[in-house]
Amino acid sequence: MQVNMYAASVSDRRQRELLHMTQFPLALQSHKTLNAVYEHLLDDIASQIEFDVGICYAYEKERNILVPFSFKGIQSTPSNLSVGAGISGQVYDSNRSIFVPSRKAHPFYSQVEEEEFIDGSFISAPFSNQSSKIGVITLVRKEGSSKSFGVEHRYMLEIACSFIASDITSRSLYQRLDES
Q1: How far apart are CA 92 and CA 61, in angstroms?
Q2: CA–CA separation, 169 and 87 (whole Å)
Q3: Which end of the chain, N or C, is surrounded by fewer C-beta atoms within 10 Å?
Q4: Mean pLDDT on 95-101
């Protein structure tokens, strides 16, 4: 039996990245308030997953829109998205994460006009609890970057979103209890 050392080293590196995700809840818990969690969310994710552009949207139930609350690598403030519009809006609406190796080469996402800052390999995942959807996170590695995302990065973002939803839900409940 011949062992492919390159495949073994790639597999080992990916397993280490996934194991490193166990530290992510500690990063979230280090923030004193819910607002601090929202403010530092992309910094916390960047400690686990490298990206060039990132955006987090929160769902605003009253107007049925997604409002950007944190973004990196984007020059101007992104617009609100309708649920189902743009890539992030579709991910939120379907409640399913996606990984696309190249937006330009994708037959559907290359035609989507919203979120023009997504221009390379990207991953996107919703974050929610059992009773409600909270928001969506989209991360991009720019076209021409030496690294692109792989399916393991989608899994890492799904894990991070699970931790994020749990932390936000817990802090929101404690905040409501403190206010009453």
Answers
A1: 13
A2: 25
A3: N
A4: 95
Mean pLDDT across 38-50: 93
Segment (H or E) for 117: none
Which ranges constitute the DSSP H helices of the chain? 5-20, 24-29, 34-46, 86-94, 151-179
Q: In angstroms, what CA-CA distances link 27 with 37, 99, 135?
A: 9, 25, 19
CA angle, 150 as apex, 149 and 154 as ends, to 5°? 90
Question: What are the structure tokens assigned to 43, written together?
Answer: 């910094």
Task: Give the largest CA-CA distance in the chain.
Answer: 66
Contact 41, 108 (CB under 8 A): no
Whole-angstrom distance, CA of residue 179 vs CA of residue 110: 46
- pTM comes to 0.87
Three-point CA angle 43, 101, 75, nearest 5°: 45
Residue 53 has pLDDT above 60, yes or no: yes
CA-to-CA distance for 41 and 39, rounded, in angstroms?
Answer: 6
- Mean pLDDT across the stretch 100-115? 90
Q: Give the tokens for residue 125.
A: 């995942």
Round to whole Å and give the CA distance between 14 and 173: 35
Closest CA to 173 of 138, 118, 129, 115: 129
